[in-house]
Amino acid sequence: MCGALTIVMVLGAVARSVALPIPLVLGTVSFPLPLPLLLPLLPVCLILHGQSRGDLEAEKVAVRPVVARDAVTMAALVALACLVSAVEAWSGRTTGIAMARDFAGYLGLALLLRRVGGPGAANVAVVLFPFACASFGMRSSGHPRVWAWPFHGPGSVVAAVVAAVLLVGGLVVARRDPLVKRWGDEESDGL
């Protein structure tokens, strides 16, 4: 996974001028969607796919802390993305900073959506999110709305905060075991 993430980050820095034309629903005819905005989705989808492969009942009784290890792994991958982006920024390419931010934000969004709709729906929704941002999140002036954080520049504090909130929220939600009964969830014993 580390190798795939590093390759994606390097590809984004190299292909920063490649863009896909996306039609806008509100505003002008089309908007160029830069490829580096889409590349961080690949490792996010791989992480989501890998998380949904295990037997939840077996993982629930496993001796090793599966949920904690998943959270540490995801945090380490975000740290790796930040490290690669720092090396790219040192060499004069700022695309990596936005890609690391987007990776963290997409991962957090995917984890939140996974809790609501399951891994399949989360994968589809997180992949469609940048296209929704391109279609609905751009003002007629060409500037992105606040919720369209992937389209903000690499130095945008607002986008970094939104991505960080999504990541922390996703990690917190992912830490909660969906198979553990909580207070108030008890079934009646018929007594």
List keywords for this structure.
7 helices; two-stranded antiparallel sheet; 62% helix; mainly alpha; 2 strands; disordered C terminus; 191 residues
Please outline the helices and strands.
Elements: H1 2-14, E1 19-23, E2 30-34, H2 35-38, H3 41-51, H4 56-60, H5 66-90, H6 95-136, H7 157-175
Antiparallel strand pairs: 1-2
Describe this structure in a few short sentences:
By secondary structure, the chain is mainly alpha-helical. The protein is built from seven helices and two strands. Helices cover 62% and strands 5% of the residues.
Q: Determine the strand fraction and express it as a percent band.
A: 5-15%
Give helix % range: 55-70%
Span between termini: 51 Å
Structural class by helix and strand composition = mainly alpha
